[in-house]
């Protein structure tokens, strides 16, 4: 056997083995299964897990942007006209949220943690100075007192109203952004505090929330089931709330939004428990996006999350008392937040009933600036980018016994909204891209084997064709040599002896002699 034949046979054998093994691995999905199994084991909230430290001390910087609605015509509104507001901000704060008091429970299947949040002002990312800028807005303590007196006798309210007037308390106040956000000593609350010491004399939207946590959480680590990774087991010792009017609405579903299980698909719904909203919400797939070279799935709350029970009956449980429901796009949360009749929505009443938008001049809802969304890397479940946007509103209406409200048109009045954002940092993004490259190469290794087999198959075809051409050429080498000398007369040729090897062709006469 020649070297060429040996090469052809060896190439054919290697090619056949590569194709058979490669196709078998592709069909059996051995490497994909191996990678998925490894991810399910590695991505857990255990001390040995590589993601545990990132969960305990989140690396991406989180920023909290506060926007306020400055009321430009309080007198017109008090007289029965339409309120007009102008958005001011953002006033941006860097948010720090480490996990503290981390304790593993039940053989490492659950983990207890507190999540205190602290805020530091970032001037370069802000549109103004919160300690200087003056804000005209609703006096929320005033509204809270009126709301609480609704359950009292009508004859009590006028006396309270006159007392509030003597203190110079009005429905609208002028305060700096810093005071309204982080707290100031309110004259009305100070008087109430002297009679009821358990009532705080200070008021601020974020009063006593800098450096505090939203409750005690117990999470599933994902050791028993990777789909439970990061899910909340209990919040403040509760597996179910009691504020709402249905068992489904009271359920604590999903994670806290910091982590999600690996191997996310586009068809599933993701659940997040928002302690500040006192409820769980779900997110659905929107589209694929690219964040710093990383492909991610964007999930966002669909329109049915805050839809009216008339259009989405499952939301009837959020009406308290039962059947006392607001319209689409708003949720009354004062049931779990004692005080004023507080209502939450998306910024500028995005996805809400147009009646709420048209009730106040100066609102302009749009998807780009006001949608809440999460961009998740589907293989690992890691949030690559997040924007949590929510608006705080208060219900203003006529209250009998309070003459200053007699001309008010009932309005869900916008106070402020927040934009909490986080994007993966460059170092973490680089590590993520490297990890995903390794995962892709390992997962597609069988395809590489098949590709090598196809290349060798092409080489085999080329070698086989060239070998056939050479065999054909050898068979055609027995040919008649033609002389270049000029033809001579017959007699001259006959007189010369024939030379072996010089001429194969002979004259007719010589042929007869032979």
From TrEMBL:
One Pfam family in the UniProt entry: CD36
Keywords of the record: Glycoprotein, Membrane, Transmembrane, Transmembrane helix
Protein's UniProt keywords contain Lyase: no
Claim: Membrane is one of the keywords in the record: yes
GO biological process: protein targeting to lysosome; receptor-mediated endocytosis
One Gene Ontology CC term in the entry: lysosome
Amino acid composition bias (Polar residues), ranges on this chain: 478-495
Family: Belongs to the CD36 family.
Name under which the protein is recorded: Lysosome membrane protein 2-like protein
Species name: Solea senegalensis (Senegalese sole)
């Amino acid at each position: 056997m020649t070297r060429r034949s040996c090469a052809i046979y060896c190439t054919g054998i290697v090619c056949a083995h590569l194709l058979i093994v490669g196709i078998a691995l592709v069909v059996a999905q051995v490497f994909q299964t191996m990678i998925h199994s490894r991810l399910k084991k590695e991505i857990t909230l255990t001390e040995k897990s590589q993601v545990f430290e990132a969960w305990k001390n989140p690396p991406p910087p989180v920023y909290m942007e506060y926007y306020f609605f400055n009321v430009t015509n309080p007198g017109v509104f008090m007289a029965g006209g339409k309120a007009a507001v102008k958005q001011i901000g953002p006033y941006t704060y860097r948010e720090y949220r480490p996990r503290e008091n981390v304790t593993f429970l039940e053989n490492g299947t659950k983990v207890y943690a507190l999540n205190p949040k602290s805020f530091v002002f970032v001037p370069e990312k802000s549109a103004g100075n919160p300690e200087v800028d003056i804000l005209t807005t609703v006096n929320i303590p005033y509204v809270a007192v009126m709301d609480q007196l609704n359950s009292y006798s009508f004859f009590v309210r006028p006396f309270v109203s006159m007392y509030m007037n003597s203190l110079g308390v009005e429905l609208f106040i002028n305060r700096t952004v810093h005071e309204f956000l982080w707290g100031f000593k309110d004259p009305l609350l100070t008087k109430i505090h002297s009679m009821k010491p358990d009532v705080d004399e200070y008021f601020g939207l974020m009063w006593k929330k800098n450096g505090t946590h939203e409750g005690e959480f117990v999470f599933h680590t994902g050791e028993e089931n990777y789909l439970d990774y990061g899910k909340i087991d209990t919040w403040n010792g509760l597996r179910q709330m009691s504020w709402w009017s249905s068992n489904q609405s009271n359920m604590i579903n999903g994670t806290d939004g910091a982590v999600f299980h690996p191997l996310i698909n586009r068809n599933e719904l993701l659940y997040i428990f928002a302690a500040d909203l006192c409820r769980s919400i779900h997110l659905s797939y929107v589209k694929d996006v690219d964040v710093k070279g990383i492909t991610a799935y964007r999930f966002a709350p669909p329109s049915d999350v805050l839809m009216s029970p008339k259009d989405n009956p499952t939301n009837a449980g959020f009406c308290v008392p039962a059947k006392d429901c607001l319209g689409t796009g708003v949720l009354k949360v004062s049931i779990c937040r004692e005080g004023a009749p507080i209502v939450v929505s998306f910024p500028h009443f995005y996805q809400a009933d147009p009646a709420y938008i048209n009730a106040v001049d100066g609102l302009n809802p749009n998807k780009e600036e006001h949608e809440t969304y999460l961009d998740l890397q589907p293989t690992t479940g890691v949030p690559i980018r997040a924007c949590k946007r929510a608006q705080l509103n208060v219900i203003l209406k006529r209250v009998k016994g309070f003459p200053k409200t007699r001309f008010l048109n009932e309005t869900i009045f916008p106070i402020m909204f927040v934009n909490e954002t986080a994007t993966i940092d460059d170092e973490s993004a680089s590590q993520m891209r490297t990890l995903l490259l390794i995962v892709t190469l390992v997962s597609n290794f069988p395809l590489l084997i098949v590709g090598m087999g196809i290349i060798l198959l092409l080489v085999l075809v080329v070698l086989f064709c060239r070998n056939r051409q050479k065999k054909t050429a050898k068979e055609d080498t027995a040919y008649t040599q033609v002389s270049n000398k000029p033809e001579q007369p017959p007699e001259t040729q006959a007189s010369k002896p024939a030379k072996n090897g010089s001429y194969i062709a002979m004259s007719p006469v010589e042929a007869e002699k032979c």
